[in-house]
Design goal:
Number of strands: 4
Strand order of the largest sheet: 1-2
Oligomer: single chain
Helix content: 55-70%
Length: 234
């Protein structure tokens, strides 16, 4: 999926028509493509113009929307990994693929730049009702510029809020929508930083089972829970 254009000029450059024979269907498809990109660009500008929420006002934020989303996603992930109950849930996840353990596991993968594996397990947790996992996916797609996928996860947050899900929430936060594309959320103060070297070392030892068209999907190992305390104190 191509990323959302950053400006109207970029969208128009993509829509250039080169010399050759084109059918009415080709021209109609090009018009629809340009309209879709301009529509997504309007939402990018709308998101960028939103006032900073109270939970984030005390911290300097990057100006660009995708940088803001990347910053907030790493903040969420660090908080999930630091949570006191993370190691216990990772153990349950290793034994029975408990959805609560999928959330901190996915966050660990994201911090190690294992984005596809993180996305897989966030989807697993969100499918079990985790609003936190749905928020992680929303921020992930905003960071990537995938506005249609971001809208999908905004809708999922709205639905999950509607069923009053009260499951595992390792990072205190509020994520609500108005039923549209916008997600209003607040985050806690930044937790302590994690050693990138330690995170990558732990993830390097994981098993990666091949899962059809998804490719290698990282899997937990028993030693992961044993070394979790070392990970968050290194």
């Amino acid at each position: 999926m191509s990323r959302t254009p950053r400006s109207i000029e970029e969208a128009l450059r993509r829509a250039r028509v080169f010399r050759g024979e084109y059918t009415d269907a080709d021209l109609e498809s090009a018009r629809h493509g340009l309209a879709r990109q301009l529509h997504e660009l309007r939402w990018v500008r709308f998101f960028s113009a939103l006032p900073t929420s109270a939970g984030r006002a005390a911290h300097p934020m990057p100006a660009a929307l995708h940088e803001q989303a990347a910053h907030d996603l790493r903040l969420l992930c660090r908080g999930a990994v630091h949570h006191d109950g993370a190691a216990r849930r990772i153990t349950a996840f290793d034994v029975s693929r408990d959805p609560d353990g999928a959330l901190p596991f996915a966050c660990l993968l994201h911090l190690a730049d294992q984005e596809e594996g993180a996305q897989f397990w966030w989807q697993y947790a969100a499918g079990a009702g985790s609003v936190t996992a749905a928020l992680c996916l929303y921020l992930l797609h905003l960071r990537q510029g995938d506005m249609r996928d971001a809208q999908h996860w905004a809708d999922q947050i709205h639905r999950l809020n509607g069923i009053d899900w009260n499951g595992y929430t390792p990072v205190p936060h509020h994520a609500a929508t108005d039923g549209g594309r916008t997600v209003h959320y607040t985050l806690p103060a930044p937790p302590p930083a994690l050693s990138e070297r330690a995170v990558r070392a732990v993830v390097h030892d994981l098993d990666a089972l091949h899962d059809g068209g998804l490719g290698p999907v990282p899997q937990p190992i028993p030693a992961l829970a044993d070394h979790w305390a070392d990970l968050v104190t290194t």
